[in-house]
Amino acid sequence: MLDSSDRILTTQAGSLPRTEALLQANKLWTEGEYPGGWDAFSSFLEEQVLELVERQIDTGLDIVGDGEYGKAMSSKLDFGAWWTYSFARTGGLELSSDTMWTDSNVISEPGNPQLTGFSYRRDWTAFHDAYTDPTSGVSIRSEGAKSFPKATGPLSYIGHDALAVDIANMKAAVEETGAEEGFITALSPGSASRIGNEYYSSDEEWLYAWADVLREEYQAIIDEGLILQIDDPSIAEAFDQITPEPSTEDYLAFTKVRVEALNYALRDLPEDRIRFHLCWGSWHGPHTTDLPFEDIVDLMLTIRAGAYSFEGANVRHEHEWRVWENTALPEGKLIIPGVVSHATNVVEHPRLVADRIIRYAQLVGRENVIASTDCGLGGRIHGQIAWAKLAALVEGAQLATTELWG
């Protein structure tokens, strides 16, 4: 994995805006109407990924991704493709009549945190009027279908063809453009397991079943020479999805099991080929009930990864750069802080971006900081704004490099 030994490197957190052509192709493919079938659709994806990687290189990014283009978005507004792609790649699931918006009567007890329905998030309850007002700017209800599956049998990995296309497209784009490094995202067991389960008898058994399934993606991505990014907002975000609010001690115990399942899935894989992404959820809301970063950072650092990506530009979490004043970054590890945000349409000034980068560099060492976005930009903000933010990210990193290296 590249580090910033000579200059501040730049990357992005995964999802990038889809083109109109890709959205239409996804629709036709999922409806079984794409002309030419799988081979034609795969060729189209290859072209789209190449154009996307070329644009990242032209913008000045050093470490590029496929924008999660192989993870179909239902519409321009789609906060969940990073997760929902796993449904089509996993056997043992059946479509449920429930949706992610269904109310839940699950009430946690001290010492036994349990996830509630999505609409029982404590932040959503506190700002109910805003979240239910489609003109408020904070509603996150995607425009597409919202039905979610449940497990009714043993889980198995059935996404080999789709994964092979993702890997081949990314490798071809890296080779064609001469990109310094390329990555592909994959889901964590903790995040994957937030659907219904009618088959496994315990939470731990359920989590480790997902670990066995997802390890197939992890292994394949690394074996093909690409960087693996684990997407796992659940270790921080799930705190808001437990009612009533759990104690920090109870929540960390709940989350530690999920981290252990992830580490089991990552066993024997090279840490220097793995980056881990944590966030508090990419929806545009108040986030007043987010878990403080200081409460989860030590557990995050136990994850078998060589680099850790997290939100650092979101105004609810920007102040948490101070966490690194009292937290030692392990030897040989990197941080990938977000220095431009997916949560605002305002394009950050490069000077502000540079200031954010420099704060981290002064605390953990300039060579250990790679500048990034808070979260995926695709499906969160307009594409024109997203690319302007990436340009500001690159320009800010150049300013920071000049100051940090003299």
UniProtKB/TrEMBL annotation:
SUPFAM superfamilies cross-referenced by the UniProt entry: UROD/MetE-like
GO molecular function: 5-methyltetrahydropteroyltriglutamate-homocysteine S-methyltransferase activity; zinc ion binding
Cobalamin-independent methionine synthase MetE C-terminal/archaeal domain span: 203-398
Coiled coil stretches, renumbered: none
Top-rank taxon, per record: Bacteria
Organism: Scrofimicrobium canadense
InterPro entries named in the record: Met_Synth_C/arc, UROD/MetE-like_sf
A Pfam match: Meth_synt_2
One of the protein's GO biological processes: methionine biosynthetic process
Name recorded for this polypeptide: Cobalamin-independent methionine synthase II family protein
